[in-house]
Amino acid sequence: MSAETLSLSRAMNEGLRKAMEHDPKVVVMGEDVGRLGGVFRVTDGLQKDFGESRVIDTPLAESGIVGTAIGLALRGYRPVCEIQFDGFVFPAFNQITSQLAKMRLRSLGMLELPVVVRIPFGGGIGAAEHHSESPEAYFTHTGGLRVVACSNPSDAYTMIQQAISCPDPVILFEPKRRYWDKAPVELDLSRAAPLGRAVVAREGDDVTLLAYGPMVKTCLEAAQADGSRSIEVVDIRSLSPLDEATVLSSVRKTGRCVVVHEAPVFSGYGAELAARVTERCFYDLQAPVLRVGGFSTPYPPSRLEEHYLPDLDRVLDAVDQTFAW
Amino acid sequence: MSAETLSLSRAMNEGLRKAMEHDPKVVVMGEDVGRLGGVFRVTDGLQKDFGESRVIDTPLAESGIVGTAIGLALRGYRPVCEIQFDGFVFPAFNQITSQLAKMRLRSLGMLELPVVVRIPFGGGIGAAEHHSESPEAYFTHTGGLRVVACSNPSDAYTMIQQAISCPDPVILFEPKRRYWDKAPVELDLSRAAPLGRAVVAREGDDVTLLAYGPMVKTCLEAAQADGSRSIEVVDIRSLSPLDEATVLSSVRKTGRCVVVHEAPVFSGYGAELAARVTERCFYDLQAPVLRVGGFSTPYPPSRLEEHYLPDLDRVLDAVDQTFAW
Amino acid sequence: MTIDAARGRPPGTVAESPPELVRLLTPDGERVEHPDYDVGLTAEEIKGLYRDLVIVRRLDAEALALARQGELAVWPSLRGQEAAQVGSARALMPGDMAFPSYREHGVAWCRGVDRVRVLCSFRGINHAGWDPREHNLHVPTIVIGSQVLHATGYAMGVQRDGTEDAVIAYFGDGASSEGDVNEAFVWAAVQNAPIVFFCQNNQWAISEPAERQSRIPLYRRADGFGFPGVRVDGNDVLACLAVTRKALDNARSGQGPTLVEAFTYRMGAHTTTDDPNRYRLPAEVEAWQLKDPVERVRAYLLKSGTATGEFFDEVEAEAQDAGSDLRRQCLALPDPDLDELWDHVYAAEHSLLADERARFASYLGSFDEVSR
Amino acid sequence: MTIDAARGRPPGTVAESPPELVRLLTPDGERVEHPDYDVGLTAEEIKGLYRDLVIVRRLDAEALALARQGELAVWPSLRGQEAAQVGSARALMPGDMAFPSYREHGVAWCRGVDRVRVLCSFRGINHAGWDPREHNLHVPTIVIGSQVLHATGYAMGVQRDGTEDAVIAYFGDGASSEGDVNEAFVWAAVQNAPIVFFCQNNQWAISEPAERQSRIPLYRRADGFGFPGVRVDGNDVLACLAVTRKALDNARSGQGPTLVEAFTYRMGAHTTTDDPNRYRLPAEVEAWQLKDPVERVRAYLLKSGTATGEFFDEVEAEAQDAGSDLRRQCLALPDPDLDELWDHVYAAEHSLLADERARFASYLGSFDEVSR
Ligand SMILES: Cc1ncc(C[n+]2csc(CCOP(=O)(O)OP(=O)(O)O)c2C)c(N)n1
Ligand SMILES: Cc1ncc(C[n+]2csc(CCOP(=O)(O)OP(=O)(O)O)c2C)c(N)n1
Ligand SMILES: [Mg+2]
Ligand SMILES: [Mg+2]
Q1: Most buried residue, A59, C316, C338, D97, by most Cβ within 10 Å?
Q2: SS3 at position A6
Q3: In this structure, which residues have their CB less than 5 angstroms from ion ligand 4?
Q4: Radius of gyration over alpha carbons of chain A, in Å?
């Protein structure tokens, strides 16, 4: 059988395992990824099965994690770094932005850094400060990186393997609050969409919702809940490079577009989607591309996050606006 | 007399001096800001006149510069940090994003951090790697920060003083390649525009150019060079918060808009301007808001930068497109 | 692919029970002398420390229970570290400034923070519950290591003010690996800043033992930067107080920074979301149980006849009351106001936030009219 | 506002002429013994080192001239640091990997990099001129400290490969303050990685003297992390070679990292855009002139009768040729192709870049038709 029902966390774990079995150069490194198996259990059991030299409990320093991963990659390894929570990637920002992203150009293509940086992201789990952020826009603005986000167990399973085999550095965002959602996982990689491809998660005719990561499920539920309109949901999957063809053909069909992400709207990734879609589909649009997202504030204490985070109602409210425009 | 002709670097120096004379709590810190007076001479002579305790040559560590500046601010000081070049702000990114920007919210407004982080930015000076970047979008997406950019000596003189007296943390971008441009400086602060305000740098009727920092001059030259159309140039000045009123009224008047910055277009600050202007002026726009900027690559070696950087021709080419749409 | 045995693991590791440990009170409550350190404490003062220890432990236990019952989103227990926190915090003068991480509930107690305020952030109603200036205790910092630079900068401010205040920065064994902490050591040494770096080495950084951070005792990190480092028995409240007080005095008198490594143990899970059984053995916990920071003071007070059963009963009763009061106050905590999403982001009005706030209000308003 | 004198400045500073300096050749060319270090070098080998020093200095001078004439955008001269670079680099085995900063032109020479390739990035035609794998010399790193973590990770890879290679990371006195460098020390110690941290303390980080970075000698930083640190006379090529070789051998044999501080001096400006007269006195430069790394070898070769005038003339002639050849090749360097803007950003085709490339091509094409 080629499908199995797994949680997103478990699917990611299985994908990692597959990659490690397939290529002895794949090493996993990060805080608590070894004996503990990661705070979200994504690396559960890997150290036991592959040993301490391939699953490394690192010192508590993110710049060190990415910086040494770069060195390992230069020696021919394929490191997979786990950043424990979104809010803790910033100590590594310098290594990611100025080294990981730029090494290939710097070396005229003589060096490549097949490094994967896994970042559990997003809120909705009632966590403490710094544990619910959506920093993707800081990376999509950085040439040299591939930035992808999975929204379901099947993509988790395939994307991690595709990311590891990708010769470019990949920032992989994992939807924290969906780690325990279960779904059938397609185990046959050849059937999966390529890493750079967006997919239509739900077909519709009247309006296009663009989302990725945790918001895909929210958008699907909104589309489901809306009786009056036929809503198409596109799972962006690859934030950089963006699969324009899939996005634009959807918007050209529907003539309306709403972008949804948890990150603050201001200067967020949704701005790029809105600007690009508008430029390419100017005459197709019945209304401006609207953006639904977090406010332009730091992530609030968890008792306020329900108001901060886009939900079904806020998505449909934006849909209403595009029709009322 | 209330006006004096100064270079942008010198105007910034005079503004700093004024602020230090006016408030003994103002301290300047950074690499080579003391005896050397900064690599761009912006702090020239300040250590001699105000002493080593107020003009601090720090260890070579940017996270330490911003992190200790935060501590000084908590003790009641008003630190002005110099980041030597744009590409070297990333080691401080964690302190800026998770501490400097968030401390006020974290403390329910009980703490404030009147810290200014000065960042010489942009290219066009034939410099080595990491010395020509435009990282503003990484900061405009971060709630809690004010992000401003000066484009001329007068604004340099006033903005640095306004930034220092601002109770919020301010990231001040300084147009590196314009440091030696001279212009009359308005010394009477009361006549200057507030920190958060955009200004119409040149009036026009047919199309609006939105720019900030080094690109303002480029846009003014383009507007000047174009005989056939009446081009309005808006100097954004405050990237966050954005002075929407000034921007929108200009675009509503002209019906066309081109955004210009040196930073990569993809997921750059221009995306926010384009998305916001489009949403607010949907029916006023004769053509989509177009963006002119750097390519989605790391900054190239200097012998290629003339192609990478927007210039008069690329700006006017975009203007042509908005009329041909 | 394997690691060549000869090259794979570090030769040295953090010593289990190191000789260089400063101790004034043995695990079974014997007062011992130390050539460099003494605490001139009266019997009453020692009884006061005992009271602190017992109440701090009780409040921690209550918070832990509240977390287990879902009244707190998460709780990082300090159990086992009471002496390190009470001893160091009681060495502070009122004007001294302390920069905590997220586990310093015992420090908050000593700085006079209203007990329920410590729970606010863990209940998710705000990010930090108390006024840092009222208590000279900075807000908690979750991003590992960041506050150590803030403390160093603050100490630079103290130098410039020319006052005699000192600063203490709390952080953990794991934090010692972060670049920020080491940059703080660079700064403090070069600036000769009046600061005490107080590292609670509780042996674990979540699931990672201290030897994943350093192959030599952590207090020796200071040698690399040119200021003194000392390891103190972190379960000995008297030693922690004496060592911290001396370090603070040195800071005051212009002798610059000191690194204090309080050798202690995290008796519980990292937080209520953690399961230590996945990475450590019960035997290790039991061994440390014998070095309990509270019991040894109780034993001393008894043996030395400094305190009677009556005293212990009083303290116990007070602790019980404190615990139930904490629970009562916690459950009574009001949820935050919606406006707090925007209220404290900027000092002055901010056009963008004002716009967001207004739009969201009218959005919420729309539900009153129609409902989907 | 003033800094209280007693508290403001650090008590200790970097010692000027420290006793613990490892030296095998005095400034006036006397061979001296050292208990722990010796270089079993033949006369020919020492003459080879002299040749390296002279040619490296000559190439540097030529590049400096090219920069002054505007043929290079900028040039960071290594003058004064020839022995530190040649000595350490000549200690490397072919399989060893070196991670330079931006000033290691002498290391590039020893690693066999075609001389003109070193100039490419300073001429602005690319960011790095040579193939790192061909020479086992990584590309230059400009962001201070970053490469030290790369080197450490690379060394972890060597451990996993189980080979006998060693790694050397070059950085400066200023870099020692960056978090990344200290994190590299943490990693290397815990992993016991086969690496040599080679710090060229040239006394200055642009305008800041070394005491702005540390109040104790930099080699002692290693004490804080649990591995050996040694200070070597950075102007003594024999000592630099001996000390580095021993450290590399220790790395190979599973004894982990070593920090080598090469105590030397930056004789010139930081780069051609810097003006040292703003921050240091000529007297300091003159004092170091007497410790010149090239002259002392020449003096030794003469005194010991190891070399005659003829040899010196040959080397001088060869250096002159190398210099003129460098200039010739530099001026002949082709400008980069427009496509290099996009060619090497990603391995595979990238829709966004392909789009940008195509649009820009048609934009350029538009000029052929009409011109404004
Ligand atoms: C920069 C950063 N990385 C990771 C984390 C996640 N995290 C929270 S606590 C912790 C372990 C800290 O260990 P230690 O410093 O010893 O303090 P302790 O929890 O033992 O008191 C980690 C990795 C964080 N909060 N910040
Ligand atoms: C992260 C970072 N900050 C600042 C700079 C600017 N800068 C270039 S060289 C230099 C001084 C470096 O001093 P040192 O480490 O002693 O090396 P040296 O130049 O003396 O060889 C500085 C501050 C940089 N390149 N990178
Ligand atoms: Mg710990
Ligand atoms: Mg130096």
Answers
A1: D97
A2: strand
A3: D 172-173, 202, 205
A4: 19
Distance CA D257, CA C7 (A): 11
* Cα–Cα distances in angstroms (integers) from residue C86 to residues A266, C54, C236, D46, in the given order: 45, 10, 10, 63
Question: What are the tokens at A41?
Answer: 């259990």
Residues A196-223 have a mean pLDDT of 98
Tell me, letter by letter, the H, E, C secondary structure of chain D. CCCCHHHHCCCCCCCCCCCCCECCECCCCCECCCCCCCCCCCHHHHHHHHHHHHHHHHHHHHHHHHHHCCCCCCCCCCCCCHHHHHHHHCCCCCCCEEECCCCCHHHHHHCCCCHHHHHHHHHCCCCCCCCHHHHCECCCCCCCCHHHHHHHHHHHHHHHHCCCCCEEEEEECHHHHCHHHHHHHHHHHHHCCCEEEEEEECCEECCEEHHHCCCCCHHHHHHHCCCCEEEEECCCHHHHHHHHHHHHHHHHCCCCCEEEEEECCCCCCCCCCCCHHHCCCHHHHHHHHCCCHHHHHHHHHHHCCCCCHHHHHHHHHHHHHHHHHHHHHHHHCCCCCHHHHCCCCCCCCCHHHHHHHHHHHHHHHHHHHCCC
**Class at the top of the CATH hierarchy for domain C21-336:** alpha beta
Look at residue C362 and tell me whether its pLDDT is greater than 70: yes
Three-state DSSP class for residue C206: coil
Q: Let me know how long chain A is.
A: 325
Residue of D1, D202, D214, D273 to mutate when probing chain B, most B C-beta within 10 A: D1
CA distance D163 to chain A (A): 12
Cα–chain-centroid distance for residue A17? Answer: 20
Instruction: Please indicate whether, in this complex, the C-beta atoms of B295 and D360 are within 8 angstroms of each other.
Output: yes
C360/C357 Cα distance (integer angstroms) = 5
CA B68 to chain centre: 23
CB of D78 sitting under 6 A from ligand 2:
no
pLDDT digits (tens, 9 = 90+) for C216-235: 999 999 999 999 999 999 99
Query: Is-contact C170 C87, C-beta < 8 A?
Result: no
Q: Whose CA is nearest to atom 12 of ligand 1?
A: C205
Cβ distance of B143 and C345 shorter than 8 Å? yes
Q: What are phi and psi of D214, to 5 degrees?
A: -160, 145
Q: Pull the structure tokens for residue A76.
A: 């021919």
Q: Is the CB of D32 under 6 A from ligand 2?
A: no
Q: Is D207 in the pocket of ligand 2 (CB under 6 A)?
A: no
CA distance A154 to A199: 13
Indicate yes or no: pTM above 0.95.
yes
Residue pair A156/A149 in contact by the 8 Å Cβ criterion:
no
Active site residues of B: 131
Tally Cβ neighbours within 10 Å of residue D348: 11
At residue A2, the pLDDT reads 66
Please report the number of interchain residue pairs, chain A to chain B, with beta-carbon separation below 8 angstroms.
134
Residue D123, ligand 2, Cβ within 6 A? no
**pLDDT tens-digit readout, C256-270:** 999 999 999 999 999
In angstroms, the separation between the Cα of residue D363 and the nearest Cα of chain A is 17
C20 pLDDT exceeds 90?
A: no
pLDDT in tens, A32-84: 999 999 999 999 999 999 999 999 999 999 999 999 999 999 999 999 999 99
Instruction: Give yes or no for residue C187 having a pLDDT over 80.
Output: yes
CA triplet B197, B199, B202: central angle to 5 degrees?
175
Query: For residue D372, what pLDDT is reported?
Result: 47
The whole-angstrom separation of Cα C320 and Cα B16 is 57
User: Which of C82, C121, C170, C206, when mutated, tests ligand 1's pocket best, judged by the most ligand atoms within 8 Å of its CB?
Assistant: C206
CB count in 10 Å sphere of residue D337: 10
Token digits for C181?
């902490």
Cβ separation D177–B64 shorter than 8 A: yes
Q: Do D206 and B31 touch (CB under 8 A)?
A: yes
